[in-house]
Amino acid sequence: MTATPVRPTEQKYEVKDLSLAPLGRQRIEWAGREMPVLRQIQERFAKETPLKGIRLVACCHITTETAHLAIALKSGGADAVLIASNPLSTQDDVAASLVADYGIPVFAQRGEDSETYLRHVQIALDHRPNIIVDDGCDVVATMVQERQAQLAELIGTTEETTTGIVRLRAMFKAGVLTFPAVNVNDADTKHFFDNRYGTGQSTLDGIIRATNILLAGKTIVVAGYGWCGKGTALRARGMGGNVIVTEIDPVRAIEAVMDGFRVVPMSEAAVHGDIFITVTGNKHVIRGEHFESMKDGAIVCNSGHFDIEIDLKALGAQATEVKDVRNFTQEYRLKNGKSVVVLGEGRLINLAAAEGHPSAVMDMSFANQALACEYLVTNKGKLEPGIHSIPVEADKEIARLKLQAMGIAIDSLTPEQIEYANSWTSGT
Ligand code: ADE
Protein backbone atom coordinates (compact mmCIF):
# COMPACT_ATOMS: atom_id res chain seq x y z
CA MET A 1 0.00 0.00 0.00
CA THR A 2 1.31 3.44 -0.88
CA ALA A 3 0.87 6.39 1.47
CA THR A 4 0.51 9.55 -0.59
CA PRO A 5 1.66 12.72 1.15
CA VAL A 6 -1.22 14.61 2.71
CA ARG A 7 -1.71 18.10 1.33
CA PRO A 8 -4.62 20.50 1.63
CA THR A 9 -7.04 20.99 -1.26
CA GLU A 10 -5.47 23.71 -3.38
CA GLN A 11 -7.98 23.89 -6.18
CA LYS A 12 -11.34 25.30 -5.11
CA TYR A 13 -13.71 23.75 -7.63
CA GLU A 14 -14.02 22.09 -11.03
CA VAL A 15 -17.43 22.42 -12.63
CA LYS A 16 -18.56 22.73 -16.21
CA ASP A 17 -19.76 26.31 -16.38
CA LEU A 18 -20.41 28.75 -13.53
CA SER A 19 -22.86 30.70 -15.69
CA LEU A 20 -25.30 27.79 -15.22
CA ALA A 21 -25.64 28.74 -11.55
CA PRO A 22 -28.93 30.73 -11.77
CA LEU A 23 -30.74 27.74 -13.32
CA GLY A 24 -29.20 25.41 -10.77
CA ARG A 25 -30.25 27.64 -7.91
CA GLN A 26 -33.81 27.80 -9.19
CA ARG A 27 -33.97 24.01 -9.41
CA ILE A 28 -32.35 23.55 -5.98
CA GLU A 29 -34.98 25.84 -4.47
CA TRP A 30 -37.75 23.91 -6.20
CA ALA A 31 -36.47 20.59 -4.82
CA GLY A 32 -36.36 22.12 -1.34
CA ARG A 33 -40.15 22.35 -1.30
CA GLU A 34 -40.30 18.57 -1.06
CA MET A 35 -37.57 18.24 1.56
CA PRO A 36 -39.08 19.48 4.83
CA VAL A 37 -37.32 16.98 7.08
CA LEU A 38 -33.83 17.83 5.88
CA ARG A 39 -34.76 21.51 6.10
CA GLN A 40 -35.62 21.15 9.79
CA ILE A 41 -32.33 19.37 10.41
CA GLN A 42 -30.50 22.07 8.49
CA GLU A 43 -32.13 24.78 10.61
CA ARG A 44 -31.17 23.00 13.82
CA PHE A 45 -27.64 22.43 12.49
CA ALA A 46 -27.34 26.17 11.76
CA LYS A 47 -28.09 26.91 15.43
CA GLU A 48 -26.13 24.08 17.05
CA THR A 49 -23.23 23.65 14.56
CA PRO A 50 -22.62 20.00 15.53
CA LEU A 51 -20.13 19.58 12.66
CA LYS A 52 -18.01 22.62 13.49
CA GLY A 53 -14.38 22.08 12.55
CA ILE A 54 -15.08 18.84 10.72
CA ARG A 55 -13.48 18.36 7.29
CA LEU A 56 -15.99 16.41 5.28
CA VAL A 57 -16.02 14.84 1.83
CA ALA A 58 -19.29 13.85 0.19
CA CYS A 59 -19.09 11.61 -2.88
CA CYS A 60 -22.67 11.66 -4.13
CA HIS A 61 -24.68 12.14 -7.30
CA ILE A 62 -24.60 15.90 -7.75
CA THR A 63 -28.31 16.64 -7.91
CA THR A 64 -30.70 19.22 -6.52
CA GLU A 65 -31.33 16.90 -3.57
CA THR A 66 -27.63 16.44 -2.81
CA ALA A 67 -27.35 20.22 -2.87
CA HIS A 68 -29.68 20.35 0.14
CA LEU A 69 -27.59 17.76 1.96
CA ALA A 70 -24.45 19.78 1.28
CA ILE A 71 -26.15 22.97 2.48
CA ALA A 72 -27.27 21.20 5.68
CA LEU A 73 -23.77 19.86 6.34
CA LYS A 74 -22.24 23.29 5.75
CA SER A 75 -24.86 24.88 8.03
CA GLY A 76 -23.77 22.39 10.68
CA GLY A 77 -20.26 23.84 10.49
CA ALA A 78 -18.64 21.23 8.23
CA ASP A 79 -15.89 22.25 5.84
CA ALA A 80 -17.38 20.17 3.03
CA VAL A 81 -16.08 19.24 -0.43
CA LEU A 82 -18.31 17.47 -2.95
CA ILE A 83 -17.34 15.11 -5.74
CA ALA A 84 -19.52 13.10 -8.12
CA SER A 85 -20.17 9.44 -7.38
CA ASN A 86 -20.89 8.68 -11.03
CA PRO A 87 -19.60 10.23 -14.27
CA LEU A 88 -23.06 10.51 -15.85
CA SER A 89 -25.21 11.70 -12.96
CA THR A 90 -23.89 15.22 -12.38
CA GLN A 91 -26.31 18.07 -12.93
CA ASP A 92 -23.90 20.77 -14.11
CA ASP A 93 -26.22 23.64 -13.19
CA VAL A 94 -26.46 22.36 -9.62
CA ALA A 95 -22.68 21.97 -9.37
CA ALA A 96 -22.31 25.56 -10.61
CA SER A 97 -24.83 26.94 -8.14
CA LEU A 98 -23.30 25.11 -5.19
CA VAL A 99 -19.99 26.82 -5.96
CA ALA A 100 -21.31 30.25 -6.95
CA ASP A 101 -24.31 30.68 -4.65
CA TYR A 102 -23.55 28.50 -1.65
CA GLY A 103 -19.75 28.63 -1.51
CA ILE A 104 -19.37 24.85 -1.50
CA PRO A 105 -16.40 23.39 -3.42
CA VAL A 106 -17.59 20.90 -6.05
CA PHE A 107 -15.44 18.75 -8.35
CA ALA A 108 -17.82 17.22 -10.85
CA GLN A 109 -18.73 17.50 -14.51
CA ARG A 110 -21.34 15.52 -16.32
CA GLY A 111 -19.66 13.05 -18.70
CA GLU A 112 -16.28 13.17 -16.95
CA ASP A 113 -14.00 10.30 -17.95
CA SER A 114 -12.71 7.69 -15.52
CA GLU A 115 -9.37 9.46 -15.22
CA THR A 116 -11.08 12.69 -14.16
CA TYR A 117 -13.37 10.79 -11.79
CA LEU A 118 -10.39 9.15 -10.10
CA ARG A 119 -8.52 12.47 -9.98
CA HIS A 120 -11.52 13.98 -8.18
CA VAL A 121 -11.38 11.17 -5.64
CA GLN A 122 -7.75 12.10 -5.01
CA ILE A 123 -8.67 15.80 -4.65
CA ALA A 124 -11.33 14.79 -2.14
CA LEU A 125 -8.77 12.81 -0.16
CA ASP A 126 -6.38 15.78 -0.29
CA HIS A 127 -9.02 17.56 1.80
CA ARG A 128 -8.01 15.17 4.64
CA PRO A 129 -11.56 14.25 5.58
CA ASN A 130 -12.64 13.52 9.13
CA ILE A 131 -15.91 12.23 7.73
CA ILE A 132 -16.64 10.68 4.34
CA VAL A 133 -20.21 10.55 3.06
CA ASP A 134 -19.91 7.90 0.36
CA ASP A 135 -22.29 6.57 -2.28
CA GLY A 136 -20.80 3.34 -3.61
CA CYS A 137 -17.71 3.23 -1.32
CA ASP A 138 -15.18 4.48 -3.88
CA VAL A 139 -13.65 7.18 -1.66
CA VAL A 140 -13.48 4.93 1.38
CA ALA A 141 -11.96 2.04 -0.60
CA THR A 142 -9.39 4.38 -2.16
CA MET A 143 -8.47 5.84 1.22
CA VAL A 144 -7.91 2.39 2.67
CA GLN A 145 -5.84 1.28 -0.32
CA GLU A 146 -3.82 4.41 -0.93
CA ARG A 147 -3.96 6.76 2.06
CA GLN A 148 -3.42 4.64 5.15
CA ALA A 149 -1.60 7.52 6.83
CA GLN A 150 -4.77 9.60 6.75
CA LEU A 151 -6.92 7.02 8.58
CA ALA A 152 -5.79 8.50 11.90
CA GLU A 153 -7.75 11.65 11.05
CA LEU A 154 -10.89 9.83 9.97
CA ILE A 155 -13.71 9.79 12.53
CA GLY A 156 -15.88 7.59 10.35
CA THR A 157 -17.85 7.24 7.17
CA THR A 158 -21.46 6.96 6.10
CA GLU A 159 -22.68 4.86 3.17
CA GLU A 160 -25.71 5.62 1.06
CA THR A 161 -26.26 2.61 -1.13
CA THR A 162 -26.62 -1.18 -1.10
CA THR A 163 -23.57 -1.65 -3.35
CA GLY A 164 -21.43 0.36 -0.95
CA ILE A 165 -22.66 -1.68 2.01
CA VAL A 166 -21.74 -4.90 0.19
CA ARG A 167 -18.22 -3.51 -0.33
CA LEU A 168 -17.96 -2.39 3.32
CA ARG A 169 -18.95 -5.87 4.49
CA ALA A 170 -16.22 -7.33 2.27
CA MET A 171 -13.75 -4.84 3.75
CA PHE A 172 -14.78 -5.82 7.26
CA LYS A 173 -14.33 -9.48 6.41
CA ALA A 174 -10.90 -8.73 5.01
CA GLY A 175 -9.98 -6.96 8.27
CA VAL A 176 -9.37 -3.56 6.64
CA LEU A 177 -12.37 -1.69 8.02
CA THR A 178 -10.56 -0.10 10.95
CA PHE A 179 -13.04 2.76 11.55
CA PRO A 180 -16.79 3.07 12.10
CA ALA A 181 -19.02 3.18 9.02
CA VAL A 182 -22.68 4.11 9.40
CA ASN A 183 -25.04 2.10 7.23
CA VAL A 184 -27.50 4.71 6.01
CA ASN A 185 -28.90 2.41 3.33
CA ASP A 186 -30.44 0.01 5.81
CA ALA A 187 -32.33 2.66 7.81
CA ASP A 188 -36.04 1.96 7.36
CA THR A 189 -36.67 5.55 6.33
CA LYS A 190 -34.04 5.09 3.60
CA HIS A 191 -34.44 1.81 1.78
CA PHE A 192 -38.21 1.37 2.18
CA PHE A 193 -38.73 4.60 0.29
CA ASP A 194 -35.63 5.61 -1.67
CA ASN A 195 -34.69 2.14 -2.93
CA ARG A 196 -38.28 1.08 -3.55
CA TYR A 197 -40.43 4.05 -4.55
CA GLY A 198 -37.50 6.26 -5.59
CA THR A 199 -35.90 3.70 -7.88
CA GLY A 200 -39.31 2.51 -9.06
CA GLN A 201 -40.36 5.93 -10.29
CA SER A 202 -37.03 7.34 -11.42
CA THR A 203 -36.06 4.25 -13.41
CA LEU A 204 -39.23 4.40 -15.48
CA ASP A 205 -38.74 8.16 -15.75
CA GLY A 206 -35.25 7.55 -17.21
CA ILE A 207 -36.51 4.97 -19.69
CA ILE A 208 -39.33 7.22 -20.82
CA ARG A 209 -37.12 10.31 -21.16
CA ALA A 210 -34.54 8.30 -23.13
CA THR A 211 -36.97 6.55 -25.48
CA ASN A 212 -40.45 8.11 -25.21
CA ILE A 213 -41.90 4.61 -25.66
CA LEU A 214 -45.24 3.38 -24.36
CA LEU A 215 -44.82 0.96 -21.47
CA ALA A 216 -48.38 -0.40 -21.49
CA GLY A 217 -48.49 -3.86 -23.01
CA LYS A 218 -44.71 -4.28 -23.07
CA THR A 219 -43.00 -7.26 -21.47
CA ILE A 220 -40.66 -5.71 -18.93
CA VAL A 221 -37.98 -7.90 -17.38
CA VAL A 222 -36.71 -6.78 -13.97
CA ALA A 223 -33.50 -8.53 -12.92
CA GLY A 224 -33.24 -8.58 -9.12
CA TYR A 225 -36.01 -8.41 -6.52
CA GLY A 226 -34.31 -6.50 -3.73
CA TRP A 227 -35.87 -3.19 -2.65
CA CYS A 228 -34.94 -1.50 -5.93
CA GLY A 229 -36.27 -4.42 -7.96
CA LYS A 230 -39.50 -4.53 -5.95
CA GLY A 231 -40.15 -0.85 -6.61
CA THR A 232 -39.25 -1.11 -10.28
CA ALA A 233 -41.45 -4.16 -10.85
CA LEU A 234 -44.36 -2.55 -8.97
CA ARG A 235 -44.22 0.67 -10.95
CA ALA A 236 -43.64 -1.13 -14.28
CA ARG A 237 -46.80 -3.12 -13.64
CA GLY A 238 -48.57 0.11 -12.69
CA MET A 239 -47.77 1.46 -16.15
CA GLY A 240 -49.39 -1.55 -17.76
CA GLY A 241 -46.30 -3.65 -18.37
CA ASN A 242 -46.31 -7.43 -18.20
CA VAL A 243 -43.54 -7.84 -15.68
CA ILE A 244 -41.16 -10.79 -15.48
CA VAL A 245 -38.72 -11.01 -12.57
CA THR A 246 -35.41 -12.88 -12.53
CA GLU A 247 -33.68 -13.73 -9.25
CA ILE A 248 -30.89 -15.85 -7.78
CA ASP A 249 -32.20 -15.74 -4.20
CA PRO A 250 -34.92 -18.36 -3.53
CA VAL A 251 -36.74 -16.32 -0.86
CA ARG A 252 -36.91 -13.21 -3.00
CA ALA A 253 -38.05 -15.34 -5.92
CA ILE A 254 -41.00 -16.63 -3.85
CA GLU A 255 -41.79 -13.06 -2.80
CA ALA A 256 -41.90 -12.02 -6.45
CA VAL A 257 -44.14 -14.96 -7.32
CA MET A 258 -46.53 -14.15 -4.48
CA ASP A 259 -46.51 -10.49 -5.44
CA GLY A 260 -47.97 -11.77 -8.70
CA PHE A 261 -44.96 -11.67 -11.03
CA ARG A 262 -43.75 -14.36 -13.38
CA VAL A 263 -40.32 -15.60 -12.32
CA VAL A 264 -38.06 -17.32 -14.83
CA PRO A 265 -34.29 -17.58 -15.47
CA MET A 266 -32.76 -14.83 -17.60
CA SER A 267 -32.16 -17.32 -20.42
CA GLU A 268 -35.95 -17.63 -20.76
CA ALA A 269 -36.79 -14.00 -20.00
CA ALA A 270 -34.34 -12.92 -22.72
CA VAL A 271 -36.61 -14.42 -25.37
CA HIS A 272 -39.76 -12.65 -24.18
CA GLY A 273 -38.66 -9.22 -22.98
CA ASP A 274 -39.24 -5.92 -24.76
CA ILE A 275 -37.45 -3.94 -22.04
CA PHE A 276 -34.82 -5.23 -19.59
CA ILE A 277 -33.89 -3.45 -16.36
CA THR A 278 -31.04 -4.70 -14.16
CA VAL A 279 -31.06 -3.87 -10.44
CA THR A 280 -29.03 -6.68 -8.91
CA GLY A 281 -25.74 -5.01 -7.89
CA ASN A 282 -23.85 -7.86 -9.52
CA LYS A 283 -21.98 -8.12 -12.82
CA HIS A 284 -22.90 -9.51 -16.23
CA VAL A 285 -26.49 -10.30 -15.38
CA ILE A 286 -27.30 -9.82 -19.04
CA ARG A 287 -24.53 -11.30 -21.22
CA GLY A 288 -23.66 -12.61 -24.67
CA GLU A 289 -25.98 -15.62 -24.74
CA HIS A 290 -28.90 -13.43 -23.64
CA PHE A 291 -28.35 -10.74 -26.29
CA GLU A 292 -28.24 -13.49 -28.89
CA SER A 293 -31.76 -14.69 -28.12
CA MET A 294 -33.45 -11.30 -27.63
CA LYS A 295 -36.18 -9.92 -29.87
CA ASP A 296 -35.16 -7.47 -32.54
CA GLY A 297 -35.13 -3.98 -30.99
CA ALA A 298 -35.13 -5.15 -27.35
CA ILE A 299 -34.23 -2.30 -24.98
CA VAL A 300 -31.70 -2.93 -22.22
CA CYS A 301 -30.83 -0.67 -19.29
CA ASN A 302 -29.44 -0.72 -15.77
CA SER A 303 -30.50 1.00 -12.57
CA GLY A 304 -27.93 -0.62 -10.26
CA HIS A 305 -25.09 1.48 -8.88
CA PHE A 306 -22.26 0.43 -11.23
CA ASP A 307 -22.23 -0.08 -15.00
CA ILE A 308 -21.30 -3.74 -14.69
CA GLU A 309 -24.65 -5.49 -14.83
CA ILE A 310 -24.93 -5.50 -18.62
CA ASP A 311 -21.96 -7.08 -20.40
CA LEU A 312 -21.44 -4.30 -22.92
CA LYS A 313 -18.06 -5.68 -23.97
CA ALA A 314 -19.70 -8.91 -25.09
CA LEU A 315 -22.44 -6.93 -26.84
CA GLY A 316 -19.82 -4.82 -28.62
CA ALA A 317 -18.10 -7.99 -29.82
CA GLN A 318 -21.41 -9.33 -31.17
CA ALA A 319 -22.19 -6.10 -33.00
CA THR A 320 -21.39 -5.10 -36.55
CA GLU A 321 -22.46 -1.50 -35.99
CA VAL A 322 -23.22 0.79 -33.04
CA LYS A 323 -25.05 4.06 -33.57
CA ASP A 324 -26.66 6.79 -31.50
CA VAL A 325 -30.38 6.81 -32.20
CA ARG A 326 -31.46 9.33 -29.55
CA ASN A 327 -29.93 11.02 -26.50
CA PHE A 328 -28.80 8.28 -24.09
CA THR A 329 -29.86 5.64 -26.62
CA GLN A 330 -27.53 3.47 -28.71
CA GLU A 331 -28.49 0.74 -31.12
CA TYR A 332 -26.20 -2.28 -31.51
CA ARG A 333 -26.75 -4.12 -34.80
CA LEU A 334 -25.84 -7.76 -34.20
CA LYS A 335 -24.32 -10.31 -36.55
CA ASN A 336 -27.57 -12.30 -36.31
CA GLY A 337 -29.36 -9.40 -38.04
CA LYS A 338 -31.28 -8.23 -34.95
CA SER A 339 -30.59 -5.12 -32.91
CA VAL A 340 -30.33 -4.45 -29.18
CA VAL A 341 -30.85 -0.94 -27.83
CA VAL A 342 -28.79 0.14 -24.80
CA LEU A 343 -29.79 3.12 -22.67
CA GLY A 344 -27.40 5.41 -20.79
CA GLU A 345 -24.30 3.35 -21.66
CA GLY A 346 -25.40 0.83 -19.05
CA ARG A 347 -25.03 3.39 -16.26
CA LEU A 348 -27.87 3.98 -13.84
CA ILE A 349 -30.59 5.10 -16.16
CA ASN A 350 -32.56 7.02 -13.53
CA LEU A 351 -29.69 9.46 -13.09
CA ALA A 352 -28.19 9.30 -16.59
CA ALA A 353 -31.39 10.10 -18.49
CA ALA A 354 -33.58 11.50 -15.71
CA GLU A 355 -32.92 13.37 -12.45
CA GLY A 356 -32.63 10.49 -9.99
CA HIS A 357 -35.07 9.83 -7.20
CA PRO A 358 -37.63 12.51 -6.48
CA SER A 359 -36.85 14.99 -3.72
CA ALA A 360 -39.56 13.70 -1.38
CA VAL A 361 -37.76 10.38 -0.86
CA MET A 362 -34.25 11.86 -0.89
CA ASP A 363 -35.53 14.08 1.94
CA MET A 364 -35.53 11.05 4.23
CA SER A 365 -32.36 9.48 2.80
CA PHE A 366 -30.37 12.65 3.29
CA ALA A 367 -31.93 13.38 6.68
CA ASN A 368 -30.39 10.02 7.63
CA GLN A 369 -27.05 11.08 6.14
CA ALA A 370 -27.04 14.37 8.06
CA LEU A 371 -27.93 12.64 11.34
CA ALA A 372 -25.36 9.92 10.68
CA CYS A 373 -22.64 12.58 10.39
CA GLU A 374 -23.79 14.15 13.64
CA TYR A 375 -23.85 10.71 15.28
CA LEU A 376 -20.25 10.03 14.23
CA VAL A 377 -19.07 13.33 15.69
CA THR A 378 -21.07 13.00 18.92
CA ASN A 379 -19.69 9.49 19.40
CA LYS A 380 -16.15 10.21 18.21
CA GLY A 381 -13.78 7.64 19.66
CA LYS A 382 -16.61 5.57 21.16
CA LEU A 383 -17.77 3.51 18.19
CA GLU A 384 -16.07 0.22 17.42
CA PRO A 385 -14.54 -0.23 13.96
CA GLY A 386 -17.13 -1.87 11.70
CA ILE A 387 -20.57 -1.21 10.30
CA HIS A 388 -23.12 0.56 12.50
CA SER A 389 -26.86 0.98 12.02
CA ILE A 390 -28.52 4.35 12.20
CA PRO A 391 -29.93 4.59 15.74
CA VAL A 392 -33.58 3.48 15.77
CA GLU A 393 -34.63 6.71 17.48
CA ALA A 394 -33.18 8.74 14.58
CA ASP A 395 -34.98 6.55 12.04
CA LYS A 396 -38.31 6.94 13.90
CA GLU A 397 -37.81 10.67 14.34
CA ILE A 398 -37.28 11.10 10.59
CA ALA A 399 -40.51 9.17 9.95
CA ARG A 400 -42.36 11.30 12.53
CA LEU A 401 -41.13 14.54 10.98
CA LYS A 402 -42.05 13.30 7.50
CA LEU A 403 -45.58 12.38 8.57
CA GLN A 404 -45.96 15.72 10.30
CA ALA A 405 -44.87 17.54 7.15
CA MET A 406 -47.34 15.47 5.14
CA GLY A 407 -50.11 16.46 7.56
CA ILE A 408 -50.75 12.85 8.57
CA ALA A 409 -51.56 12.01 12.18
CA ILE A 410 -51.27 8.49 13.60
CA ASP A 411 -52.43 6.78 16.78
CA SER A 412 -50.31 6.18 19.85
CA LEU A 413 -50.54 3.32 22.31
CA THR A 414 -52.88 3.73 25.29
CA PRO A 415 -51.38 2.97 28.75
CA GLU A 416 -53.36 -0.29 28.68
CA GLN A 417 -51.81 -1.23 25.33
CA ILE A 418 -48.31 -0.38 26.55
CA GLU A 419 -48.84 -2.63 29.54
CA TYR A 420 -50.17 -5.41 27.32
CA ALA A 421 -47.27 -5.09 24.88
CA ASN A 422 -44.78 -5.39 27.75
CA SER A 423 -46.43 -8.36 29.49
CA TRP A 424 -46.12 -12.06 28.75
CA THR A 425 -48.55 -13.54 31.27
CA SER A 426 -51.87 -13.08 29.52
CA GLY A 427 -52.38 -15.25 26.40
CA THR A 428 -55.61 -16.72 25.19
N1 ADE B 1 -29.58 8.61 -5.88
C1 ADE B 1 -30.71 8.36 -6.53
N2 ADE B 1 -31.40 9.47 -6.76
C2 ADE B 1 -30.67 10.51 -6.25
C3 ADE B 1 -30.86 11.89 -6.18
N3 ADE B 1 -31.95 12.49 -6.67
N4 ADE B 1 -29.92 12.62 -5.58
C4 ADE B 1 -28.81 12.02 -5.08
N5 ADE B 1 -28.59 10.71 -5.10
C5 ADE B 1 -29.51 9.95 -5.68
Describe the fold and architecture.
With 428 residues, the chain is of the alpha/beta class. It has two domains: 18-190 and 357-405, 3-Layer(aba) Sandwich (Rossmann fold); 197-352, Rossmann fold, CATH 3.40.50. It is 45% helix and 16% strand. The protein has 17 helices and 15 strands. It has helices at residues 21-32, 36-48, 64-75, 92-100, 114-126, 138-146, 162-173, 188-211, 227-238, 250-258, 266-272, 288-293, 312-318, 349-352, 359-378, 392-406, 415-422, and strands at 55-60, 79-84, 106-107, 131-134, 156-159, 180-183, 219-223, 242-246, 262-263, 275-278, 298-302, 319-326, 329-334, 339-343, 386-389. An eight-stranded mixed sheet has the order 9-8-7-10-11-14-13-12, with helices on both faces. Strands 3-2-1-4-5-6-15 form a seven-stranded parallel sheet, with helices on both faces. A hairpin with a 2-residue loop joins strand 12 (319-326) and strand 13. Helix 2 runs parallel beside helix 3 (64-75), helix 3 (64-75) packs parallel to helix 15 (359-378) and helix 5 crosses helix 6 (138-146). The longest helix has 24 residues, at 188-211. The N and C termini lie far apart (63 Å). Bound molecules: adenine (ADE). The site of adenine (ADE) has 9 residues, from helix 3.
